[in-house]
Amino acid sequence: MLDRIFDYLDFHFSVEAPIVLLILVLLEALLSADNAIALAAIARGLEDKELERKALNFGLVVAYVLRITLILTATWVQQFWQFELLGAAYLLWLVFQHFTSEEANDDHHHGPRFNSLLQAIPVIAFTDLAFSLDSVTTAIAVSQEKWLVLTGATIGIITLRFMAGLFIRWLDEYENLEDAGYVTVALVGLRLLLKVVNDNLVPPEWIMIAAIFLILGWGFSKRVGTELTQVEPEKSEVSK
Which residues, including other chains, have CB under 8 Å from residue 17's CB and lie 6 or more apart? Predict the structure, then answer.
């Protein structure tokens, strides 16, 4: 029985396996920055920080199950361009919803508001699944051994939860970070759309990573309340 499971997962340990696993984990970390900020921004649609934390925890548990299912069926899924089209449409819809919705007065939050965890959890899970359509393809290109890809995905989802937790805190500190995150979501959505139209039009991975880091650099460029602290000294001088 175990032999059959190992054969299905292509479980053949070799000296190169730890190196490949390290590469997969690094790829997950690099490619999940935009994913993490998107999930953090979605979780902000809940009422308080405790609900945000629970939404990320439960949402990523469901996302992990969906991601493992995607990996195990990747060969079949890759035969149907409709999955990538749906993923692209979903991500671009999230971006459209973000930039066309009104900003909340209290926390600069765009996007949907949720009344309960049950509303937020599916959105978080399916957002991660849409991102995974791109990252799983990259992971399988690195290694054909499913057990390595599954291990990388497991470590990746834990890293994603940690990064999303950091971004939730940073979203309160940096004014442009949420918008920057959704711009990177748009890049991933457009990349999936290009894969459907013509694979030759898809930019290489290093260009995507460089673009994401440049956009996030802009997102971290301005702290909330910076303008206020600059104006206050001017007011005090006028009063003198």
Answer: 145, 148
Residue 103: which region, alpha, beta or left (left: phi > 0; alpha: psi -120 to 50)? beta
CB atoms within 10 A of CB 2: 7
Bridge partner list, 223: 174
CB 134 within 8 A of CB 192: yes
pTM here is: 0.74
Average pLDDT over residues 139-165: 73
pLDDT tier for residue 122 given thresholds of 50, 70 and 90? very high
Which of 86, 112, 45, 114 is CA-nearest to residue 189?
A: 86
Q: Residue 86: left if φ>0, alpha if ψ -120 to 50, beta else—which one? A: alpha
Mean pLDDT score of the chain: 77
Q: In the prediction, which pLDDT does 8 show?
A: 41
Alpha-carbon distance 69 to 65, whole Å? 6
Do you know the residue count of the chain?
A: 240
Residue-wise pLDDT for 196-221, tens only, equals 888 888 888 788 878 888 998 999 99
Structure tokens at 35: 């994913």
Handedness of CA 91, 93, 99, 102 (dihedral sign): negative
Do the Cβ atoms of 32 and 136 come closer than 8 Å? no
227's CB contacts (< 8 A; 6+ apart) are: none
